[in-house]
Design brief:
Blueprint (H helix, E strand, L loop, with lengths): L5 H34 L11 H14 L5 H28 L8
Helix pairs in contact: 1-2, 1-3
Length: 105
């Protein structure tokens, strides 16, 4: 993967990267919500023991916005992965159609 050209990397990793970004946002929200539940009332205060939890929970939307909303990211990832699969399937079919003994050239 480290030796892919930029075009190949964009094509192969674009969908996976979008999927990872969307999932990371979902996990962050779940973790912050659970932390607030564990801290109880302190998880909502801007000072004291729950200060960090409150700050993370407040900044979640800002952390998720730069990549786009989750539904857009998931849609992009599925479209990209389906497109890659169809391209690879088409290439595989072209290889199998070639008569035996013929070369790729």
């Amino acid at each position: 993967m480290t030796r892919l050209s930029k075009e190949e990397a964009d094509r192969e990793l674009g969908g996976l990267t979008a999927l990872a970004k969307a999932k990371a946002g979902m996990v962050l929200e779940s973790c912050a919500s659970t932390a607030q539940l564990l801290f109880g009332g302190n998880g909502y205060t801007k000072g004291g023991q729950g200060e960090l939890v409150e700050k993370i929970f407040r900044e979640i939307p800002g952390a998720r916005i730069p990549g786009g909303s989750e539904d857009v990211m998931l849609d992009l990832s599925v479209r990209q992965l389906v497109k890659n699969f169809q391209l690879k399937l088409k290439n595989e079919a072209a290889v199998q159609e070639r008569p035996k003994g013929s070369s790729k050239l």
